[in-house]
Amino acid sequence: MKNVPRNLKSYFVCLLRKGERWNDIAGAEELGAQHLAFMREQIEARHFLFAGPVTDENPIRGVTVIEAASLEEAKELVSQDPSILAARLSAEILPVYFPSLDAVRVEF
């Protein structure tokens, strides 16, 4: 089809939402640092292609684009996030097609 990009590739979008322990302030500063370190590790490994926070008071707090072989693999990667483990965040993962993001690089 002439109106469909030829370089579509399968990805997963993760919507990070406020979790059931969102308002729990115990260890919040340490957990935030652990979450950011985890995100950097996943981005440097190219499991997560890029991620960023939502900047208003939406229940969705962040968005991540994941490259994984399957939905199960994407869920397994996200489940290791310290903020998910602490129930400060919860995740919704959706399969999507985007034009290839192979050239996208995050710089630290």
Second-tier CATH architecture: 2-Layer Sandwich
What is the share of helical residues? Answer: 25-40%
Order of secondary-structure elements: EHEEHHE
Per the CATH scheme, the topology name is: Alpha-Beta Plaits
According to CATH, the homologous superfamily is: Dimeric alpha+beta barrel
Please count the beta strands (DSSP E, at least 2 residues each): 4
InterPro entries: Dimeric_a/b-barrel, YCII
Pfam families: YCII
Domain YCII-related: 26-86
Protein name: YCII-related domain-containing protein
Structural summary, described in words:
There is one protein chain. By secondary structure, the protein is of the alpha+beta class. The chain has a single domain, classed as Dimeric alpha+beta barrel (Alpha-Beta Plaits, 2-Layer Sandwich), CATH 3.30.70. It is 28% helix and 32% strand. It is built from 3 helices and 4 strands. The protein has a 4-stranded antiparallel sheet. The model has no long low-confidence stretch (mean pLDDT 95). It comes from Acidipila rosea. InterPro entries: Dimeric_a/b-barrel, YCII. Pfam families: YCII.
Give keywords.
108 residues; alpha+beta; Alpha-Beta Plaits; four-stranded antiparallel beta sheet; 3 helices; 4 strands; elongated; YCII-related domain-containing protein; Dimeric_a/b-barrel; YCII
Sum this structure up briefly.
Belongs to the YciI family. It contains three helices and four strands, in the order E-H-E-E-H-H-E.
Write the layout of secondary structure elements.
Elements: E1 8-18, H1 28-44, E2 48-53, E3 60-66, H2 71-79, H3 82-85, E4 89-99
Antiparallel strand pairs: 1-3, 1-4, 2-3
